[in-house]
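Quick entry, no commentary yet.
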Amino acid sequence: MGESGATADTGPSRIQRRNRARIIEAALDVFSQHGYRGATLDQIAERAGLSKPNILYYFTGKEEIHVTLLNQLMDRWLAPLRRLDPEGEPLDEILTYVRRKLKMSQKYPRESRLFANEILQGAPRIAPHLEGDLKPLVDNAAATIQGWIDAGRIAPTDPRHLIFSIWATTQHYADFEAQVGVLMDGRAATDGADPFLTTLYTRLLRPAQD
């Protein structure tokens, strides 16, 4: 029996679920700000308002907390690409994907920075997700885009570099939020981003008129 009275039959108690959620939320703040290497259990404990031994009751250490966060992040982060509809209007589908990614950068900047920090370190803890989840998804999306190109429904371009470009032009607002905030002269970081990106990708992808 654990500290809150949960058993193997009943599963985690309400208090346990609440404390795990507090730890995960605090860790998201700490990891997104300091990166994996700079983050400490003491920082996470302080942010969560729990003792370090209490943190270690729920998780074996910093790495398990980080992996838990990354696992939760991947499903959310890949969802917009999964919604790319091969039967839809190609330009509309791609622009909708751009807007969804931009909204995610607005809504989940900490998650974006957490993912970026992991990739910058060589993806030591998320590599299985890149091979098992992200790679097949990008392969399918690239095939869909190539099919639209072959049918003359969008202008020729490299599908994978198009996807990379969308990531770069949307997640930048989250990953470089501090820099963007300074350079926008008091305006919101993504103010004007939607119409700019719509124009950018429309001009790139609209088929040439005969």
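second:
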Amino acid sequence: MSLVRDDDTGLVLIEPDWPDCPANVRAYSSTRIGGVSLAPFGDADGTSGLNLADHVGDNINSVRMNRSCLSDFFPRDVTFLSQIHGTLAVDATDIREGSIVEADASFTNQPNVSCVVLTADCLPILLASTDGRCVAAVHAGWRGMAGGVIEATVQEMRRKGGREITAWLGPAIGANAFEVGIDVFDAFTQKMPQQRQNFKSQVRDGKYLADIYGLARTVLHSLAINRISGGEYCTFTELELFYSYRRDGLTGRMASWIWIE
């Protein structure tokens, strides 16, 4: 785990342990630590929470201050997507400041333009072409992933010239905590039978345990993306570091973002 701690502000970020990431590409993922939000949007102690979502019921001024805390870790101001668990990937270069864009992924081949997604159990996926010419961020909840958000984003990256692509899987709910129903099992396995390996059947009420990291890896492998890092966290069980919607219900959101220097 590569944690970045700012002693002055108390901010704690994750810098991806990503050996295949090009030298000119930067990326981070936030934790719940280091902001001004209070419970239920605080840190594990109920204070100093770094909630970055303005749609979950937190005080809007707290969200603005939290986003401002990250200004040194973005190349310039960013506009967060309005995520809808869909499959649309948009060009981050075309997003105007302050606009509302309904999408679940963004990509760019321009320097100093951040691609960013918000999560609290769903899987953030950061993508970079190995030549450093194109990057993307994907909000991969189960609905979006089953629907094809990863494929749609990779297709757009390849249109932008990103041929050989590497991926980093950010903090998401772990394989021993993500309980799902037959609808989720069917959504993946009917489209891609090899996804069966990423489900463990449960006796209770016909439920399954799903490995969201494994589901994403299987999709990425099908797209000839084999350089994959990350996937070692569990937002549900790592209370000190992460918000979790499944665990807490009313809670904040973390961000994962990437850009070309």
